[in-house]
Design a protein that fits this description.
143 residues, alpha/beta, Rossmann fold, four-stranded parallel sheet, 8 helices
């Protein structure tokens, strides 16, 4: 897979992308994590999303937070304001922080979560499954 000639991709990865990658190294999620670790894409994070992701990974015995630590690069930390309250229409309050971070940072939200995917028309930001995201990056450019 190549990403030649395209601008750096800015992504916010929902926790479920890390979990899916950990359980299936051949999944779309694992491919995204691999390319993020290689620094091909900019995974945007803030303390709240990083803390939740690492906390959940620690709770699932076969997964290791160290396996994913390289994705959270300091240079990609978002320190600006985010407003999860503007996303109250998303049923799961834990999902709102990811939508708010993607909106505030201008990134694409990559998730497998139905609470987020079912609201993508209302979010005003790109929200994609890992497979959708990879297909969009690999699509031939319209020149």
């Amino acid at each position: 897979m190549s990403d030649q000639g395209s601008e750096r991709r800015r992504l916010v990865l929902d926790t479920n992308v890390f979990v899916a990658a950990g359980f299936n190294p051949r999944s779309h999620s694992a491919e995204i994590i691999r390319r993020a670790r290689e620094d091909n894409w900019q995974v945007v994070w803030n303390e709240e999303t990083r803390r939740e992701t690492l906390r959940l990974l620690n709770q699932i015995p076969p997964l290791s937070r160290e396996e994913f630590a390289g994705v959270f690069r300091e240079k990609n930390r978002f320190v600006g304001p985010v407003d999860p309250g503007q996303f109250r229409f998303i049923e799961d309050p834990d999902d709102r922080k990811y939508a708010a971070l993607a909106e505030a940072s201008g990134a694409t939200l990559v998730t497998n979560d139905d609470h987020l995917l079912s609201k993508r028309g209302r979010l005003g930001i790109p929200v994609m499954t890992p497979g959708e995201f990879l297909r969009s990056v690999e699509a031939p450019s319209q020149v």
